[in-house]
Design brief:
alpha/beta; about 15% strand; globular; binds zinc ion
């Protein structure tokens, strides 16, 4: 820790990175056929190494949800993440939205990703995050499959309203889900609430597009008013203003390219203002307080 800004609490938040290239994002699914992927310039290694250097400077250990196709192509990157003291978790293999897959295809995807990431880093992979948070009311079956495939926690249910994802009425804090195959800790990306509406405050496009003061206010609110850590997330391509521009529609282009040149400085500010650790440590805390968590663990739907 390099010295926190005045007002920062002692709470250790969770820092997470979804390790994928700029062309893997779901917003480009319709405009860029997947067969084109191998022909595009890959920038994920350089961008991820840059994030690792920034985290080193701030003495922060984070969780990296690595996409299987990235881990397969660059096993050295997965090893580097683990050997520098971070947690390796899974972002699935092929970056397909879960509700567009059959349960059988999803099982094969998460099994393949976990196995190749574990082979690359030599450690157990416990966590999963879906492409574009695509565990929604129509793909809750995925949680059972994750449990059966040996995952210990999930971070794919986003309690907000969005055109591609979200269960706005789901729990905002980490909670334990009990199923026949065992228990899974669900760790949602963080929100703050304004009346009945949950507002995203901790990462991704929200962090890039909205002013930094928004994230700082929201995270402080969760830390101080609720006494809980936030789960922050970003992608390696978000600190890369030099990435090739793809021909996306207006909304997708705005969401993807806005403020790429400002994100690294914002991230450094964030790391100076708040404390961060891995998802695994946060999950450990939730499991430690099992009884309390078990009573909280209600998804608003049965499946
Ligand atoms: Zn992703």
């Amino acid at each position: 820790m390099t010295g926190l800004a005045p007002g920062a609490t002692a709470i250790v938040n969770a820092m997470s990175v979804d390790v994928e290239d700029y062309y893997h994002v779901s917003a480009f699914d319709g405009i860029l056929p997947r067969v084109e992927w191998p022909r595009l310039e890959s920038r994920v290694c350089a961008n991820t190494e840059r994030l690792l250097d920034i985290f080193d400077e701030h003495e922060v250990h984070a969780t990296f949800f690595v996409l299987g196709v990235v881990g397969e192509q660059f096993p050295g990157l997965v090893r580097s993440i683990a050997s520098r003291g971070h947690e390796v978790a899974s972002h699935g293999y092929a970056h397909r939205l879960i509700y567009d897959q059959t349960p059988t295809a999803f099982r094969a995807d998460v099994r393949r990703a976990r196995s190749l990431l574990e082979d690359a880093c030599g450690r157990r992979v416990a966590g999963y995050r879906a492409p574009s948070y695509s565990i929604t009311p129509r793909s809750l079956w995925a949680l059972d499959i994750l449990l059966e495939e040996g995952y210990q926690y999930d971070s794919s249910v986003f309690p907000i309203r969005h055109d591609r994802y979200g269960i706005p009425v789901s729990e905002r804090r980490p909670y334990l889900i009990q199923r026949k195959a065992g228990s899974l800790v669900e760790v949602p990306a963080s929100t703050t609430n304004a009346g009945p509406v949950n507002l995203p405050v901790a990462g991704g496009g929200y962090f890039r597009i909205l002013p930094y003061a928004w994230a700082k206010w929201g995270i402080s609110r969760v830390n101080c008013n609720e006494g809980r850590p936030v789960v922050f997330y970003l992608h390696p391509w978000e600190i890369d203003p030099g990435q090739p521009r793809l021909k996306a529609g207006r909304v997708s282009a705005f969401r993807h390219y806005r403020n790429l040149d400002r994100t690294e400085a914002r991230l450094r500010q964030l790391l100076a203002d708040f404390r961060f650790g891995t998802m695994e440590s946060l999950v450990f805390q939730v499991r430690q307080d099992k009884e309390r968590a078990a009573t909280e663990g209600a998804l608003p739907y049965c499946w």
